[in-house]
Specification:
The complex is a heterodimer. Chain A is α+β, with helices and mostly antiparallel strands. Chain A contains five helices and five strands, in the order E-E-H-E-E-E-H-H-H-H. In chain A, 53% of the residues are buried. Chain B folds into four domains: 30 residues; 193 residues, Aldehyde Oxidoreductase, domain 3, CATH 3.90.1170; 199 residues, Aldehyde Oxidoreductase, domain 4; 143 residues, Aldehyde oxidase/xanthine dehydrogenase, molybdopterin binding domain (Aldehyde Oxidoreductase, domain 4). Chains A and B meet through helix 1, helix 2, helix 3, helix 4 and helix 5 of A and helix 2, helix 4 and helix 17 of B.
């Protein structure tokens, strides 16, 4: 079975040690997904697996046969960039740009978690069908994505513009 | 140093002193910046416009290519093995299993590495960029715990990493100095920084302190820090014959090309270092051993090499900020006027680097006082070379100084802002030079009003909100204006009226490409779409370090010089048939796609028209910036007033920062959108310094114990409140564009503002960073 990456099928690697991150970066040259620590501590390698955010450095590529992966390169639609990508530019949600693809993919996955009512450490109503977007929810849920340039305010502003009040 | 070296240094020192005096006394007009940059006058154009980053679309789509993202035909992957002892010799080294492992192309050790020169140590020559000057795989000696001992090249990273694990090594250890006490026992030197001893004496500060009616005398300590840019160090390296091409993550491309040439015995023109995007630098993205190892292995294997350090690898071979132990004593009259400032202490460094963390630098210009005693003592350990990290000196020096000022204010019963303003100097307190631009009092007043400082309860531990104790603190931020020698720029005007500007400068997230495109377009009278700004390539003109917050000024002065040369050439080409006939370069300015007489916009000819009449397809000029004498003629600094509101849990000691404001006086702001990000970024790194950051060093083994982002904590989204930033926007009349670099000032003062807020909240004075909860319970 193949792995579907941004809509295109690709063969799983022969070497079972190859992480999904290295498959993306080294075999497919999809270098938008970044390697910041290769041990699940920084979030730079975040991609979406069937819409759920995962750390591709901690994922072996062979485990994703039959699954559908979306990377930063696959987020834009036919009519241009994803609204969150545009909001990151508008709110200066990055400086060096290295953590940015992971932040953006992570936020897309986070919005889906809110929509399906997955609670976080700061969620007060654990029984709600959907979790209401708040700045605190966003900061809590994005805390696995490190940024060293200090673009945190712009990142949260971009996410808020895109998802606060939106029908999740 | 030999007697001869001492004599040479003394002679150079005397010559420098004469030169320095001459520059001090020269008329303003003779000095760069003596005549204000005409761009300072333009008020409604691109300068100061909040333009979004021009590389934004690439970065948010993952299309900006970083150093480890250039695939080359036949490229192999490197893995580096590190020593596990701090000092000694390699006793046995077995590489047989590694060499036999699948996919392995080369195992390089000291036995087969090519002969190479040591890296030229940063600041020992104009273009020296090395973090240390030790032999690299040239012998069996170990100098620090984590030193590279072997490099494996293989067809895949997985194969290289596995083969590396098969290398067998034993060591003959030798006694190493890995404790602070042990280092002290070996003796101390006065730290030397930029060729000058870190020692300043004015009057008898100890006597003045003893005689002062009110005084504070305390010791503050700060731990080791690591830069931890999210992009780990990486390089993609290829040899073409004797030409070396390095796609690097670099904040000093020209320095690195020259330094690599020196290592491999090449002419500097045989080495090209490119670095279009850098995933954060903060002082660490210079030349460390990995680029040399990668290039040596590529030469030996005859294959291009990708060497991408693991996160642990960065901690093992790229230095960070060293620890400091600082005494700050301030003596004051009862009215708060300072009579004595003492700022002395100890830092740890190695015998093979050039960075005695100069924590006294902020104290040289912050306050007036009758007497000063400032001194940095260096002691030496067997450890990884420490290096420059964001605001080296000031980041930790302002922690000690500004906590002490707060402590003194409490003893005097004075408001800490009023105490600072009372000691505002009229001229540089040490050098006696006039300030080029200093509006820190305005910054204090504006910040205090906006932050609601008047609502602060001066009694410590008096405000409580449920389980949380709440306090406010403030501190001065300060960082020098630097402009280093060597800046140069090229401009190419083409017949369609567009201009390409090239400088060997860097974009690590500061917004360089965006802001400099704005500036160049404004200077030329073009739209941003008509200007492209090239950077990040050592074959471009200029020696422009992205460090010391000097890049904005260095590029600015270089582009001014190139623009002047372009204008001179254009006026020649325009000749007598132009409305511009008879005008000199200083009488015209860029306007509406051409040149016009200043104040007479109708006397204008477009670039397209000038080139067309001259039958030229293009006009290329290159010019060097004048030497940075302005920094010796005026005392040039950026300033800030930092305000923090901290909440400390009364039960657990956990500290949360609920509000922060930086009020800055840093000359004219070129782009408020990217500038606000730089200010906030510095402040956020300062919150890390205040609350959590520490490179833990095992004093038994000389080894970093937390070489990962899981164990070295940096601020995450939940730690970062909305950070407010404001600025005076008063141009420095003596700086290009009236602007100062602003990459570092945000981290200065922040640690003290947090500690002072925590004191106001709890009544507990923590003088040892980071302010972890165990110190507040």
């Amino acid at each position: 079975m193949a792995i579907r990456i941004n809509g295109t099928e690709t063969r799983a690697p022969a070497d079972p040690r190859v992480s999904l991150l290295d498959l993306l970066r080294e075999t497919l040259h999809l270098t938008g997904t970044k390697k910041g620590c290769n041990q699940g501590a920084c979030g730079a390698c975040t991609v979406l697996a069937d819409g759920e955010r995962i750390l591709s450095c901690l994922a072996l590529a062979v485990q994703f046969e039959g699954r559908s992966i979306t990377t930063i390169e696959g987020l834009a639609g036919q009519d241009g960039m994803h609204p969150l990508q545009l909001a990151f530019i508008e709110h200066d949600g990055f400086q060096c740009g290295y953590c940015t693809p992971g932040q953006i993919c992570s936020a897309v996955g986070m919005a889906a978690e809110l929509a399906r009512g997955a609670p976080s450490a700061v969620t007060t109503d654990l029984g709600a069908a959907t979790v209401r977007f708040t700045g605190e929810e966003a900061r809590e849920r994005m805390s696995g994505n490190l940024c060293r340039c200090g673009a945190h305010n712009g990142i949260i502003a971009a996410i808020t513009q895109t998802y606060a009040g939106a029908a999740l | 140093m030999s007697i001869l070296d001492n004599a040479k240094a003394a002679a150079q020192g005397a010559a420098q002193a004469v030169m320095k005096k001459a520059v001090e006394l020269a008329p303003d007009a003779w000095v760069p910046g003596g005549k204000p940059d005409p761009l300072i006058r333009s008020k409604h154009g691109l300068i100061g416009a909040p333009i979004s980053r021009i590389d934004g679309p690439l970065k948010v789509q993952g299309r900006a290519k970083f150093a480890a993202e250039f695939p080359l035909d036949g490229m192999v992957y490197a893995a580096v093995a590190f020593s596990t002892v701090p000092k000694g010799r390699i006793a046995t080294l077995d590489t047989g299993a590694a060499e036999a492992a699948a996919g392995v192309v080369l195992v390089m050790t000291h036995r087969n590495a090519p002969r190479m020169n040591n890296m030229p140590l940063f600041m020992t020559a104009e273009k020296a960029a090395g973090g240390d000057n030790l032999p690299i795989l040239q012998d069996d000696r170990i100098h620090w715990n984590g030193q590279p001992i072997a490099v494996v090249l293989a067809e895949s990273q997985e194969q290289a990493d596995h083969a590396k694990s098969l290398i067998g090594v034993t060591y003959a250890q030798e006694p190493a100095v890995t404790t602070l006490a042990g280092a002290r026992a070996q003796g101390a030197d006065i730290g030397m920084f930029q060729g000058q001893p870190l020692k300043t004496t004015v009057g008898d500060a100890e006597a003045a302190l003893a005689a002062a009616p009110v005084a504070i005398d305390a010791t503050y300590t700060t731990p080791r820090h690591n830069h931890n840019a999210i992009e780990p160090h990486a390089a993609t390296i290829a040899w073409h014959g004797d030409e070396l091409i390095v796609q690097d993550a670099a904040q000093a491309v020209s320095h690195m090309a020259w330094s690599l040439a020196s290592v491999f015995g090449l002419d500097e023109r045989q080495v090209r270092v490119t670095s279009p995007y850098v995933g954060g630098g903060f002082g660490a993205k210079t030349l460390w051993q990995h680029q040399v190892l990668g290039a040596a292995a590529a030469r030996l294997a005859g294959r291009p090499v990708r060497i991408a350090l693991s996160r642990e690898g960065v901690f093992r071979i790229v230095g960070g900020r060293t620890l400091t132990e600082q005494r700050v004593a301030i003596g004051a009259e009862a009215d708060g006027r300072f009579t004595s400032i003492i700022h002395t202490g100890t830092i740890v460094m190695t015998r093979h680097n050039a960075m005695p963390e100069p924590f006294i630098l902020p104290t040289r210009g912050a306050y007036a006082a009758d007497s000063f005693k400032l001194e940095v003592e260096a002691v030496y350990m067997d450890m990884l070379a420490n290096t420059f990290m964001r605001a080296p000196g000031e980041a930790v020096g302002t922690f000690a100084l500004e906590c002490a000022v707060d402590e003194l204010a409490a003893r005097l019963g004075m408001d800490p802002i009023e105490l600072r303003i009372r000691n505002e100097p009229a001229k540089d307190p040490i050098e006696g030079l006039p300030f080029s631009s200093r509006h820190i009092v305005e910054a204090w007043r504006a910040g205090a009003a906006r932050f609601g400082w008047a609502r602060r309860n001066p009694a410590p531990g008096a405000v409580r909100d449920g389980a949380w104790r709440v306090g406010m603190g403030c501190a001065t931020a300060t960082y020098p204006y630097y402009r280093m020698p060597g800046g140069a720029a090229r401009m190419k005007l083409t017949k369609d009226g567009s201009v390409r500007v090239e400088v060997a400068a860097h974009e690590m997230g500061m917004g360089t490409a965006t802001a400099q495109t704005q500036v160049a377009a404004e200077r030329l009278g073009l739209s941003m779409a008509q200007v492209s700004f090239g950077y990040g390539d050592s074959i471009m003109p200029g020696v422009v370090l992205a460090g010391g917050s000097q890049q904005t000024a260095s590029i600015g002065a270089s582009v001014m010089a190139a623009h002047h040369a372009l204008t001179v050439e254009l006026l020649k080409l325009a000749g007598n048939d132009s409305p511009l006939a008879g005008l000199g370069a200083d009488e015209v300015e860029g306007l509406d796609g051409g040149l016009a007489k200043r104040g007479e916009p109708d006397r204008h000819e477009s670039y397209v028209s000038i080139l067309a009449r001259a039958r030229r397809d293009a006009l290329v000029v290159e010019a060097a910036a004048p030497p940075p004498l302005e920094t010796q003629h005026w005392s040039m600094h950026s300033h800030g007033a930092m305000f923090c509101e901290a909440r400390v849990n009364a039960m657990t000691g956990e500290t949360r920062i609920s509000r922060f404001l930086g009020s800055f006086d840093c000359g004219r702001i070129l782009n408020p959108k990217t500038a606000a990000s730089q200010f906030r970024g510095g402040i956020i790194m300062g919150l890390g310094l205040a609350l959590m950051e520490e490179t833990q060093f095992d004093e038994r083994k000389g080894r970093v114990m937390n070489p990962s982002l899981a164990e070295y904590h940096i601020p995450v989204h939940m730690d970062v409140p909305e950070i407010d930033v404001i600025w005076t926007d008063i141009p420095d009349p003596h700086a290009p564009m009236g602007a100062h670099g602003i990459g570092e000032i945000g981290i200065t003062g922040t640690g003290a503002a947090v500690a002072n807020a925590v004191f106001n909240a709890t009544g507990k004075r923590v003088r040892d960073l980071p302010l972890t909860l165990d110190k507040l319970m």
